[in-house]
Each structure stands twice: as structure tokens, then as C-alpha cells.
Amino acid sequence: MASSLITALTVTTPHTITKPRLITDGEQSGLLDVLTKVPDPRDPRGIRYPLSAVLAVAVCAVMAGASSFAAITDWLHDLDGSARVRLGFGDGVPAGTTMWRLLIRLDPALLTSVLAGWLQSRTRQSVPAPRRYRRVIAVDGKTLRGARLGDGRQVHLLSALDTTTGLVIAQVIVDTKSNEITSFAPLLDAVEKVLGTLTGVLFTADALHTQTGHADEVIARHAHLLVQVKGNRPTLFKQLKQLPWAQIPVGDRTRERGHGRRETRTLKAVTVRTPGGIAFPHAQQAVRVTRTRIVAGKTSREAAYLTVSLPAGQALPRDLQTWIRHHWHIENRLHHVRDVTFREDLHQARTGNGPAIIATLRNTAIGWHRITGATNIARATRQANRRSHDLITAVTSSYPTTQ
User: Fold this and answer.
1) How far apart are the first and last CA of the chain?
2) Where's the H repeat-associated protein N-terminal domain (predicted)?
């Protein structure tokens, strides 16, 4: 870094945006067809029930609101004979212990990949993507508070959510002897497996992931990174905080009112040109978001600092404002729903891969209801439970995406 903090500041201004690569979908396969890709861990000599049938029931039951392995079995046993046949069963159905023993032996990362790919293929754009459309994936972790291992430690999962579709693209189990930082690269691998390529994708993450290695990993895959900066990176935080923000014009401002409060979010973005640039690898812009809240006549104000690897011409202030807000979809539209609608923190699944498997099923259920137009997931699950035949028809149908 030069002795002078800033040699030049370039305020973000509109530039010409190149047209993004079009993303096309293949055929929309039925759920039973897709689930045949999941390897069966059982000895072939003792198989009585197809794995695809067991998994299809688990997926449908959670879509209908089942919040535990026992509830999944109950939902299956409540189905009539024709519904069971359509899900791949013959004369009999497995007992609850059989279902449970099989599901907890599956590979959760592979199951997530298969189900995420299936949901991706079922998602179609109702309108053409905007000219400046960019796929934005939010990364965040969640502890399953009720799922404790034998030594008392809790299971922690790191997820990647497509903020446009609301689908969980990938999910990995965080090593109990480590933390989310070491799981970031495996999560990128899982996302790339589902999408095929990460070129042009923007990843957003909280301050924990403001890591040099993360930035290098993302850029090496031709993707981009938008991260918040806090005290865990003191040099970078000090640099961003000391920029002459008062001299920088406002790039974007939004105002919202609701829940008894008024909130104004003011965003400023600049390109810092010094011999050393921003003190974070591949960072192209420094961003400050000032949040002003008025609640019951009292005003509070806080500032958040971020960096992004996209240059000003590809990340305008209004884009940055949207991406930063959408990052919290992973908390509000995924983790909160799993806790409230599916009572995840009360569920005490802890054997084998059970915690990760049931979390994957919940992610799939939420994603399915999102892409089918539901805005209230709890209501959607109740409706699916009342109309089990309609649900089975919808998930098992197969048809091309093109008309």
C-alpha cells in the first residue's frame, strides 16, 4: 500500500453491460426417474422396496409438511393403494424403522446435487431475463440445534441459495473439528456440479468468508465475490472506513415502511486506485451501505462496508443494493422457514447422515413450493397434504421445457 490511502477514487457510474450468457434447461424429468441416479447402499440380495420409491415418498411427505422421519412414514401409510403404486411401491410398504435406516445411510451431498438438479430443470423463466441479469448465490451456514452428535457437538450445514429462484443449489456438512471456512471450497465444487459452470456467477457471503483463499478460489472459477467486511479483517476494515465517503455522491437510495418502522438504505460505491488497491485480493470496488431506521420516534443509524470483485461497469449501485438485500433471502426465506414451518431446531435426528438428509428434504420442499408459485410455505404444505394425488402427479410428471 502507498503511504497515501487514496490516489484516485472513481465513483461508480453507468456503463454498457454485455448481454449475459443464456441459460437453457433440458427436459423436466419426473422425480422417480431422477432418483434412480442415487446409489443404493443396500446389499442387492435383501432389497424389497426400490430406493427411488422410498426417496420419492420422503420428498413428497416433506412437501406435504412432514417434519420428521416418523412423520414421513405416517404419510406413506396414510396413502391409498393407487397413490403408493404411482410412487413405485407394490403390495407392501416399508416400516418406519426400515425407512429410517435406509435414509440415514445415503450420501447427503449427492442427494442434494440430484434433487437440486431436478428442481433446476423444473424451473422455467416466465419472462425473458433482464439485460443485466446475473445469477447471484448466497452462502450461509446454519446449526441444527436439536441434532447433537455423541460428543454433544451440534451439526452445522453450509448452504448455497440461488437468490432469484429460491432454490438451494448445494449444501455441505461442516467438519465438526473445523468451521465454515474450510467448507467453502467443497461448497463451490458442489454448486459447479449442479450448474455446470460458475462463469459469471456472483457469490455473496457474510464477514466470516472475507478470506483471501475464498477470493482466489472464486476468481479461479471465473466467478465473482461480494463480501461484508468487519473486524475480523482489521486492516481492510480500517481502509474502507477511512475512505472519504462524505465526498462521494450517493449511488442508490431506497426507502421502506412497515412493521412499525421506516428504513432508508443509502449506498455509495467507489473504485479505489492506489498502487496496492483495496487491501483484499481481486476487489474492484469498495461499498458502504448506511441504514437509517426510525422506530417509535427513535432514530438509529449503522454503516456496513463491503467489497466486490466486479468492476463498476458490471455492478451499478442499484445492482449492488439489490444483491446485498437478496443475500438475506437465505436467512429469511430458507433458514427461518425450516425453523418455523418444519420445526427444524426441535428435531433431534442425530444418527448417521440423518440431520443432513432431512435438511436436504426440507430444502427441496421449500424450493418446490417456491418454483410452483407459493408465497406462504406453511399454507402450501397444508394444501399439498390435503391434495396428495395432485402432488404426486405434479412431481412424477415428465415433459419438455420448450413449448
Assistant:
1) 57
2) 33-119
Residue with the three cell numbers 465444487: 189
Q: In whole numbers, what is the pLDDT of the chain averaged over residues? A: 87
> In a 3-state reduction of DSSP, which class is residue 69?
helix
pLDDT of residue 149: 64
How confident is the model over 140-163, as a mean pLDDT?
83
pLDDT in tens, 216-233: 999 999 999 999 999 999
What is the distance between the alpha carbons of residues 243 and 95, in angstroms, rounded to a whole number? 64
pTM above 0.90, yes or no: no
What 3-state DSSP class applies to 198?
coil
Supply the angle between the helices 354-371 and 96-103 in degrees, to the nearest 10.
90
Contact indicator for 267, 253 with CB cutoff of 8 Å = yes
Close Cβ partners of 309 (under 8 Å, ≥ 6 residues apart): 215, 218, 219, 224, 225, 226, 282, 283, 284
State CA 313 to chain mean position distance.
26
Residue 289 banded pLDDT, cuts 50, 70, 90? very high
Q: What does the DSSP assignment read for 81-119?
A: HHHHHHTT--S----HHHHHHHHTTS-HHHHHHHHHHHH
Percentage of the chain surpassing pLDDT 90?
A: 72
Strands (E), 209-297: 224-229, 252-258, 261-273, 285-295
The 10s digit of each residue's pLDDT in 134-145 is: 999 999 999 888
Provide the pLDDT for residue 345: 83
Q: What are the b/e assignments for 310-340, b being 16+ CB within 10 Å?
A: bebebbbbbbbbebbebbebbeebbbebbbe
Sorted by where each begins, the domain ranges of the chain are 8-12+28-396
Q: Which residue has the cell 484516485?
A: 8
> Are the CB atoms for 78 and 87 separated by under 8 Å?
no
345 DSSP 8-state letter: G
